[in-house]
Amino acid sequence: MAGAVSALFLLDIKGRVLVWRDYRGDVSAVQAERFFTKLIEKEGDPESHEPVVYDNGVTYMFIQHNNVFLMVASRQNCNAASLLLFLHRVVDVFKHYFEELEEESLRDNFVVVYELLDEMMDFGYPQYTEAKILSEFIKTDAYRMEVTQRPPMAVTNAVSWRSEGIRYKKNEVFLDVVESVNILVNSNGQIIRSDVVGALKMRTYLSGMPECKLGLNDRVLLEAQGRSTKGKAIDLDDIKFHQCVRLARFENDRTISFIPPDGSFDLMTYRLSTQVKPLIWVEAQVERHSRSRIELMVKARSQFKERSTATNVEIELPVPSDATNPNIRTSMGSAAYAPENDALLWKIKSFPGGKEYMMRAELSLPSITAEEGIPEKKAPIRVKFEIPYFTVSGIQVRYLKIIEKSGYQALPWVRYITMAGEYELRLI
Amino acid sequence: MSGHDSKYFSTTKKGEIPELKDELNSQYKDKRKDAVKKVIAAMTVGKDVSSLFTDVVNCMQTENLELKKLVYLYLINYAKSQPDLAILAVNTFVKDSQDPNPLIRALAVRTMGCIRVDKITEYLCDPLQRCLKDDDPYVRKTASICVAKLYDINAELVEDRGFLDALKDLISDNNPMVVANAVAALAEIQENSSRPIFEITSNTLTKLLTALNECTEWGQVFILDALSKYKAADAREAENIVERVTPRLQHANCAVVLSAVKMILLQMELITSTDVVRNLCKKMAPPLVTLLSAEPEIQYVALRNINLIVQRRPTILAHEIKVFFCKYNDPIYVKMEKLEIMIKLASDRNIDQVLLEFKEYATEVDVDFVRKAVRAIGRCAIKLERAAERCISVLLELIKIKVNYVVQEAIIVIKDIFRRYPNTYESIIATLCESLDTLDEPEAKASMIWIIGEYAERIDNADELLESFLESFPEEPALVQLQLLTATVKLFLKKPTEGPQQMIQVVLNNATVETDNPDLRDRAYIYWRLLSTDPEAAKDVVLAEKPVISDDSNQLDPSLLDELLANIATLASVYHKPPDAFVTRVKTAVQRPDDEEYPDGSESGYSDTPANAVDSAAAPSSSSNVTHAATRQAAPAPPAPSAPVPDLLGDLIGLDGAIVPVDQPATPSGPPLPIVLPASTGQGLQICAQLTRRDGQIFYSMLFENNSQIPLDGFMIQFNKNTLGLAAAGPLQVPQLQPGASATTLLPMVSFQNISPGPPSTLLQVAVKNNQQPVWYFNDKISLQVFFAEDGRMERAHFLETWKSLPDSNEIAKDLQSVVINSVDVTIDRLAASNVFFIAKRRNMNQEVLYLSAKAPRGIPFLIELTGVVGIAGVKCAIKTPNPEMAPLFFEAMEALLN
């Protein structure tokens, strides 16, 4: 079971090595580069290629970020899930350091890159990926101090995500409850899949080592406490916690208790697989007129209560890739042809509940067509929106208690917002 | 806070090495630091800067941590090429390992462990010993990994210096991070050692489970992976472990979740309480589903693992099929894996929705994905009998879209559907024939040709259709040629008219004289020989009934599946191959040869199911196999029908028609054969004989004893018309028998040749003659049990269905007076050995009731109910069958089997 990687590579878009760190000396950069450039050449689009590939005794696992590939090579039966996730964390750490991870920023910071690779992984085993704590003892030139650095306590502490001695004048916590609605409607208008993925996103500006306790209207908890759960409690399907939350405690009595990291992080995510009524429904009628033009009639309807309003609504309607001369009219908002997406983009700034808007569009088609039988790429209608002060699940933060030994009062701010996640209607 | 290090890359002009040398020896700190950065920059772009070794090492003694790290980095890269100079660094290393700053102490041992030079390794031991006992956990956690490094370089040194014990002590360390790294190091060392080094006792287990709650996410993965090797003593312990691990399912890190799932699945094998198991299955489903919202690369790993998990525990995700529906933007590799799982989870309950999805995918753009979607429809049809019709209508709709590769793929799967449900859906052949012209891929062509040949009697213009392929015969790939050959022979046997006769001439000529392909030529010669000597035998071979195929989408070998489940989240679970298949250990730069097998994860894991020997010549490739990969890889079908028709083969080998004795299977050991012709009647010739069944084939097992005074030769045998039309499949092969000698033979038999009219009877009249004696006639009995087919086992549901579907008038019962059942199990075993298969049993008062099934010739099922009391004579045998007139024979057979 034991397994570690032999080396970690940062490669450019053509698969050439930018920086690499050899951990075990049994895979060479030349070997890896030869393999990966060939893969890119052969596949054209490496994004469509399986992220775990075997070649000549070596397994390569890679992800892409901007114009950089991050790849590990291993000769053992290592933990694929852990290592691919590690690569994503490496991206996060680099982004924290250089704002953006791309070929240029790697070159500009190669010294720090080497230092980080040395600290994040040892002998091919992932070690430490908390960017905030790493930046306490590995600094870029601008912030480098002459004082010799020591490893922060946090690196080996049980609380590995927070350093001691943090001070704020004003102690505040911002908690955003963000719910993404994923929906898939098939060509018969049936909802074939719908779920809500929620996240509690926190930004903490708290001094010292604060103990936090979060109370939700979680049915299991409320029932365990013998409170009435009429109407208000919700069932969360699958809850995932940031590593700061004490999982064993949650398993015991459903209490969410934690010492938060400093700054922003996702405290928890959850999923609800209950059937959701599509918040915004879009119907499109398409008429093709003998290969000369195409007419679209689109209706968009908001199916939530009138007191809520969706903002920044964007409806993407696929059209044939060879369509031209758009002529579009809308009853609300503005619509434009986006040829780069082969779609019409209908934007509505504010869409109150219980309303219906229309759009009509006409596009010309070339009279000569490509050879018969090659199917048109069938994209679904996709919708984006945000509905502030509203959650589909009805989740409520009942309290957020913050206790620190210095006894300060901290202010928690809670916001709710619902937005479209993967919102696809195959109705065109 | 971005840096400006890129300037260090720009000094790539000539003479840079001497220039760098100067700068490295500069008296100014900053200049030296810049120079080292330039050196590292050069190293990064792959330039050889090893000649600066001494100069760089001279910069090692510095207070500046950044510079120190760069020099260390340089050392890791070049110490190997300058082993003699590397010694220069040792002093600084040793000094640094005692630095007051834990960061530097750790850095020193960490780096020393990475330098694989003996001279350095020697000096590593003392610092390492100190660091393993360091006050600072950061140093200890680095040192524990360093033990694994040292073990990799010099295992003996680790054992001699007692590092293993020191490492084991760290499992009890109070710092969870140290514990996690010690576990990782020990697990790796154990993997490379044949001795037991790291065995998890229940004591370590407790410690590790405690550390689990406190260490970093990566450390949790190390611990969970190591613990998955632990075998709980009993169900109770397993439950306790699971209880401690379950909270990890809530962790945000997918790797932690997957490793926790692995632990739970392994412990579940020991848990006996069905409630606990059900509860655990319920608990695991949501986290597994949530993995599908992770990054696509993680999703891919998760999907490959879920594929394994649903094979072992299908209930976990039985109701979650919708989460595997493909999203528009999913990368193709994710879509492919989702499709695979959708097939596995498809059931009668959700098939309508699943089909709608497949149909949607079949109109997408990515050709591979579309093909896989079409094939998925076919696999569902084969898997779900009740949905087959709906699947086929979707396939027909897709064919009508007339997208070339969709049509071809559809035809390939429809061929398999025909094999699965014979005589059910042939009405669609006409629609298939419309697409004939568009086929250009060998597999699709071969499938279509197989269909035409197989159903030649239903297709009016089968001869024309085949003829259209014949023109291009020489250019076709072997796969298609073989099918064309077989299909033409089938056509000729079914419609022996002038047209097909001419075609067969052309094909046989093309496939013998005009070809270099030995498989094709052999098959053609066999057909030729068959057709010219015995067209009836040819019919039996070529038009033989084919075994029904089954769905194999769930087929990973159980032991492999076990191994893979123990390896969840690792590469083995992604490749669906055991670790030995791809793990390669390279000791210091030894390169492996290039000829390693490429374990392509995408389509592995399906084993070829051997097709029936006769049929493999008749169906395109190994068509009992439905998966894409396997069919592609399948070797050309064996050209000759093997065992079941040894005489024909013998005939062929002789080629000139003379009978060449073939090695026959030895005389059956077991009960002596009954005497059918006593020596007193046969003028000294005694014959013992009995019908037997072997390897799915009926033989007449015979023993000839010559007790006369003269040698006997020229033995021949003839069977009179009988109820089941039994006849010899070939000539009798008995050598000349000297006086006093004996010979045994197994005469292969065929049935339904010369069927005697009238009520069924067990009478079998046989005539044997030789050159010296008159013809001997004797009577034998047909024992129906030799006809019971090996594939007579019925699924329970199918049994019930069949039982219900037959009218009551088809139920016949008889009391078998003399039969005593002494043990139900023994009876079941004995019956199974004769292809009477046990389905279910129940107790009614003190009576045992057994339900069994058997398949008589021509696929006629017999559903059997045996009722009796153990140990008491007299068993009631009730049967239901579409052919009740066979009942007397059947009862006789049962009586014989049960006594």
UniProtKB/TrEMBL annotation, chain A:
It holds the Pfam family Clat_adaptor_s. GO terms for biological process: intracellular protein transport; vesicle-mediated transport. Transmembrane segments: none annotated. One of its GO terms (cellular component) is clathrin adaptor complex. The keyword Phosphoprotein does not apply. It is found in: Cytoplasmic vesicle, Clathrin-coated vesicle membrane. The keyword Nucleotidyltransferase does not apply. Keywords: Cytoplasmic vesicle, Membrane, Protein transport, Transport. CDD domains: AP-1_Mu1_Cterm, AP1_Mu_N. Residues 170-426 form the MHD domain. Belongs to the adaptor complexes medium subunit family. Adaptor protein complex 1 (AP-1) is a heterotetramer composed of two large adaptins (gamma-type subunit and beta-type subunit), a medium adaptin (mu-type subunit) and a small adaptin (sigma-type subunit). This is AP-1 complex subunit mu-2. It comes from Cinnamomum micranthum f. kanehirae.
From TrEMBL, chain B:
Keywords: Cytoplasmic vesicle, Golgi apparatus, Membrane, Protein transport, Transport. The keyword Transcription regulation does not apply. GO terms for molecular function: clathrin binding. GO terms for biological process: intracellular protein transport; vesicle-mediated transport. It is a peripheral membrane protein. It is found in: Cytoplasmic vesicle, Clathrin-coated vesicle membrane; Golgi apparatus, trans-Golgi network. Residues 665-779 form the Clathrin adaptor alpha/beta/gamma-adaptin appendage Ig-like subdomain domain. SUPFAM superfamilies: ARM repeat, Clathrin adaptor appendage domain, Subdomain of clathrin and coatomer appendage domain. It comes from the Eukaryota. Residues 590-647 are annotated as: Disordered. Residues 788-899 form the Beta-adaptin appendage C-terminal subdomain domain. Residues 608-635 have a biased composition (Low complexity). PANTHER family: ADAPTOR COMPLEX SUBUNIT BETA FAMILY MEMBER. Subunit of clathrin-associated adaptor protein complex that plays a role in protein sorting in the late-Golgi/trans-Golgi network (TGN) and/or endosomes. The AP complexes mediate both the recruitment of clathrin to membranes and the recognition of sorting signals within the cytosolic tails of transmembrane cargo molecules. Adaptor protein complexes are heterotetramers composed of two large adaptins (beta-type subunit and alpha-type or delta-type or epsilon-type or gamma-type subunit), a medium adaptin (mu-type subunit) and a small adaptin (sigma-type subunit). Belongs to the adaptor complexes large subunit family. This is Beta-adaptin-like protein.
